[in-house]
Design a protein that fits this description.
Blueprint lengths: L2 E8 L2 E6 L2 E6 L3 H7 L6 E7 L7 H12 L3 E3 L4 H20 L11 H18 L8 E5 L6 H8 L4 E5 L7 H4 L5 H8 L4 E4 L2 H15 L7 E4 L2 E7 L6 H5 L8 H9 L4 E8 L6 H14 L7 E8 L6 H21 L7 E5 L4 H10 L2 E4 L8 H9 L7 E5 L12 E3 L4 H12 L3 H17 L2 H16 L12 H13 L3 E5 L19 H12 L3 E6 L4 H8 L5 E4 L4 E4 L2 E4 L8 H14 L4 E4 L3 E5 L5 H19 L4 E6 L2 E6 L4 H11 L4 E6 L5 H6 L5 E5 L8 E3 L2 H13 L7
Parallel strand pairs: 1-4, 1-6, 4-5, 6-7, 7-8, 8-10, 11-12, 11-14, 12-13, 14-15, 15-16, 17-18, 17-26, 18-19, 26-27, 27-28
Antiparallel strand pairs: 2-3, 9-10, 19-20, 20-21, 22-23, 23-25, 24-25
Helix pairs in contact: 1-17, 3-4, 7-8, 10-13, 11-12, 11-15, 19-25
């Protein structure tokens, strides 16, 4: 039976020692609740760190055995790894950077990055032996962003999902990270990538395009022959748990909460101690509210519950000191002998006490400066299921604000706006409270945490089911073996190759990709092998091809078939004219002027506008404009427009790579044929080849070719294997 392998930084249990014995405590977090709600028939394994440094081998083995029965697989970390991976890269680099606190981001500690790579690799070593055919892997959060790519290396066909539980920053922020490409590549090892909001999804797609060059259609990309989908899955809560919980009247904490503000309106804030939560800004806004609304003196109590977090980190110690100082200032300035405006608690509460506090509060003031979701806001709304009394003031910077649209939303940096929101909340009629709460509760009830987990898994299964993550025409070892066998048996072979993007990778300057020694040696072997006809069929101008490859003595086609080299001599196709170039050049000059980084490449019978060096999004915009202008210009000039990799080329209609290829195919009875190309202009060649030919496209995208390979390196490896099967050696 196939299984789901869940991978997160922490296991859903915590290990502690009491009197020398190991004790296991289950986690009550939302992630555990959601994943445990999945189909009971689904065999689950959960891989993660048990929350404690375990040094002794015998103790580690004991823990493995204890957890095995519950499907839990521990990953053991050393103290140094915990410090540099978790405390270092995860929480001193990724956490502040992704929350837009770049002033707190540490870009200088190489040990942090090395530990991040090492621990992600350690997780991969625990996960990969568990994977069997048909399994699904679901990786969670910012601590493990390299893991999907690492798993993909050893299990290319396994279904992999990834969910980020914190914000994904804008491209301008993300691009600052020195490790941006590696992080992006790691996440893109997944088949399905999930975010809480459309904004985070949009930022990720922008980074994927602008840094990695991966274009998308409605969130779908093709990477190395795989479909990768990026989508929005707002995480919910266990709604019933908060909606129908009855406080324990015998609990001293609950009684204290009921008595804490008897006769007062209660405004509640609940946060983990973190600079992203906007606690100092909120306290200042409360002080401003009390100063501008004296009518609320002795009428309202602000209860601030701050849960301890990362006490040993300097920034958090400074934040705690700042919060306590500000609370003291507000209470000292606005309090009276019988009334303290802000009741501040630096501690955590049990679920029962917290929910009792939710139920008792008239207003929840949740104003983070940046938050991936913020489930506290949802928990507060659910706790009002029966009373239908309460108002939520919510930061527009929290992911939850996209769903809880009937809350009063505020900019957490705008204290005046928060003052107005507090006044609006405290004076809101019960009818309006009920109306707003009912709308939000209806959504949260329907889209709870179980729905979130099920929706993600359903989409991942749908995305990967048809081919189990493998594209039908992606070349595999069986095809390569058959190709080599056919090649070895044949006597009369045609090898037709594109140049740019096929034999050499792309560069910003088209003249900077002259063939290297390794490529020239490989081409010479193929050209000299008995029975081989090697042909280069390229969009390059014929003078450049002659300069770079002419010494090989092969036939060639240049400028998409405008020029053909046969028996060492170049000849031009009939009916060519370049009288149109001056008119089109005017348009291209305007495009270059308005698109920094783009340039024109002029050939004898064609013009090419390159935008590889331009801003990617601006280049894409200009291409859309260009299409409309060119369709008008070329309609009466018998011209053709070809779009390649970051290049648009205008040339005479009536000639193309396919027609050039067809002339060579027709002239000989080849018993083996292979052609390789990478863009739209090569599709005509694929169509022109005989039925039995091996037609291969480089890169992703729809194609007429029978097979696909990932990149230029894959092409070279394939051609090297063909060359090695011949006995002919150079020299």
């Amino acid at each position: 039976m196939s299984k789901l392998i869940i991978v997160s930084n922490r296991l859903p249990v915590t290990i502690n020692r009491k009197r020398g014995e190991l004790m296991y405590f289950p986690s009550a977090g939302g992630l555990a609740t959601g994943l445990n709600s999945l189909d009971d028939n689904l065999n689950r394994k959960w891989v993660g760190w048990p929350g404690k440094s375990i040094k002794e081998d015998w103790e580690r083995e004991s823990i493995r055995n204890d957890l095995k029965g519950d499907g839990l697989v521990p990953v053991f970390l050393t103290n140094t790894e915990i410090e540099n991976f978790y405390g270092g890269f995860s929480n001193k680099v990724i956490w502040p950077h992704f929350h837009y606190f770049t002033q707190y981001t540490d870009y200088t500690h190489d040990a942090y990055w090395k530990a991040y790579v090492k621990v992600n690799r350690k997780f991969a070593k625990e996960v990969t032996p568990l994977i069997e055919d048909g399994d699904t892997v679901w990786v969670h959060d910012y601590q493990l962003m390299l893991l999907p790519g690492m798993i993909r290396e050893t299990h290319p066909n396994v279904a992999i999902g990834f969910f980020l539980h914190i914000p994904f920053p804008s491209y301008e922020i993300f691009r600052i990270l020195p490790w941006r490409e590696k992080i992006l590549q790691g996440v893109l090892g997944s088949d399905l990538i999930g975010f809480h909001t459309f904004g985070y999804m949009r930022h990720f797609l922008s980074a994927a395009y602008r840094i990695g060059g991966f274009e998308h259609q409605f969130g779908r990309m093709e990477i190395a022959g795989r479909k990768v989908n990026v989508d929005v899955y707002p995480m919910g809560i266990d709604y019933e748990k908060y909606a129908f919980h009855d406080p324990d009247k015998t609990d001293d904490s609950v009684q204290a909460i009921m008595n804490i503000s008897k006769g007062l309106r209660l405004v509640l804030s609940v946060d983990r101690l973190d600079y992203t939560k906007g606690i100092p800004q909120r306290i200042r806004a409360i002080g401003r509210f009390l100063a501008s609304h004296p009518e609320y003196t002795r009428q309202v109590s602000f209860v601030m519950l701050v849960v301890p977090s990362r006490d040993s980190v300097d920034q958090y110690q400074e934040l705690k000191h700042e919060v306590e100082t500000l609370v003291g200032e507000v209470n000292g300035l606005h309090g009276t002998f019988d009334w303290t405006p802000i009741k501040y608690f630096y501690r955590s509460l049990s679920f029962g006490s917290l929910n009792a506090l939710y139920q008792r509060s008239d207003v929840a003031l949740i104003t983070p400066l940046r938050d991936g979701m913020n489930l506290v806001a949802k928990e507060y709304i659910a706790s009002k299921e029966r009373s239908k009394r309460g108002v939520l003031i919510l930061s527009e910077m929290a992911g939850a604000a996209n769903e809880l649209t009937d809350a009063i939303t505020v900019n957490p940096q705008d204290s005046e706006e928060m003052v107005k929101a507090l006044d609006q909340a405290l004076s809101m009629t019960v009818e309006e409270q009920e109306m707003r709460l009912t709308k939000m509760q209806n959504r949260l009830r329907k889209y709870d945490v179980s729905n979130w987990a099920a929706a993600f898994m359903k989409d991942l299964k749908k995305l990967t089911m048809p081919t189990n993550g493998k594209k039908a025409n992606l070349i595999d070892q069986a095809v390569v073996d058959r190709m080599i066998e056919d090649y070895s048996k044949s006597k009369n072979r045609l090898i037709m190759l594109d140049y740019d993007g096929t034999l050499m990778g792309f560069q910003a300057d088209p003249q900077a990709v002259s063939p290297d020694d390794e490529l020239l040696e490989l081409m010479e072997v193929l050209a000299k092998a008995e029975g081989n006809t090697l042909i280069f069929n390229s969009g390059r101008d014929h003078l450049t091809l002659e300069k770079w490859l002419g010494h090989l003595g092969t036939d060639m086609a240049a400028e998409h078939g405008v020029w053909q080299r046969r028996n060492g001599k170049w000849q031009q196709a009939a009916g060519m004219t370049n009288q149109w170039k001056e008119r089109v050049m005017e348009v291209l000059d305007g495009m270059v002027e308005r698109t920094p980084g783009s340039f024109i490449e002029e050939k004898e019978y064609s013009l090419a506008w390159h935008y590889r060096k331009a801003d990617k999004e601006l280049g894409a915009k200009r291409v859309r404009e260009f299409r409309e202008v060119l369709s008008y210009l070329t309609s009466n000039l018998d011209l053709q427009v070809l779009e390649g990799h970051k290049v648009v080329e205008i040339k005479n209609a009536g000639v193309n790579k396919g027609k050039a290829a067809a002339t060579w195919v027709a002239e000989n009875d080849f018993d083996f044929a292979i052609t390789i190309g990478d863009d739209h202009t090569d599709e005509d060649i694929f169509k022109a080849m005989p039925d039995g030919a091996y037609t291969i496209k480089v890169g992703e995208g729809a194609t007429e070719a029978k097979y696909q390979v990932a990149n230029v390196d894959s092409v070279r490896k394939l051609l090297t294997k063909l060359a090695a099967s011949d006995k002919v050696q150079v020299g």
